[in-house]
Amino acid sequence: MDRRSFLLGAISISPISSFLLSDFAFADETQAGSFMQASWVVIGRKDLSPDIAGRIEVLLKQRIADYDQKFAALTQALSPAIQDEKLRNDALKGLSAADTAFALEIAKPWYLGYVGTAAGSSLKDDATFVTYLNAQAYEVVLKDLPRTSYPPGGRGWWQAVPAGVDSPTMPDRVIDWTWQPDGATGVIAKPDPAWQAYAMGEFPSLDAARAAHGTPSAHTNQQQNKQTGQTGQTEVNHG
Fold it and tell me: How far apart, in Å, do the first and last CA atoms of the chain sit?
């Protein structure tokens, strides 16, 4: 599916369209700026938060090169739909590839609740939080699907044994977050700098990270262990 089809499809599926109001008024310039108006057209909802719109706009300006020029081109292309919501689908279908890509940059934080890439998708997390409660990914299906959260129940919600499951006896204080198994030190060791740098995506390989931090690589350790073993065997033979 291409970007334009995704943009159109994302707001036409039944869970989303059922939330759209029939009396959209995109062109209310007394209550919204141009970014809010563009968001109304791209997202397909007029009940978007002005505060969230402001945060998204600031972050996108910081991250997207030539933001002002790209935004001006998009708003010009969406101008008919801003004036008349009945022209929305036609306006979105008529966007150029560049305008469609930029429209998706506006749509993503409205739906996901953050700008950038979260750690779940990349070793390098550059995401900036925008909103949780108003993220459209949750909002449009809220009638049928509650927002995900952690934990899904109160303190110790997970201690109840599911029906039909024969579970072993659990320690008396297992539901207390201060409980630790026997032998636990309670001290979290500091991560190895080389491993941490590699995990953060700062180096293409663990060996490169270890070389930069002056830490022997696994190959070097194996060679040293092999040499140590050979030296020890030689001493035994000569002994």
Answer: 74
User: Residue 115, SS3?
Assistant: strand
DSSP state of 129: E
pTM value is 0.52
Query: Mean of the pLDDT values across residues 72-86?
Result: 92
| Beta carbons of 128 and 116 less than 8 angstroms apart | yes
Strands 114-115 and 128-129: antiparallel
b/e per residue, 4-27, with b = 16+ CB within 10 A? beebbebbeeeebeebbeeebebe
Q: What percent of the chain has pLDDT over 90?
A: 32
Contact (CB, 8 A) for 206 and 194:
yes
Diameter of the chain measured on Cα atoms: 96
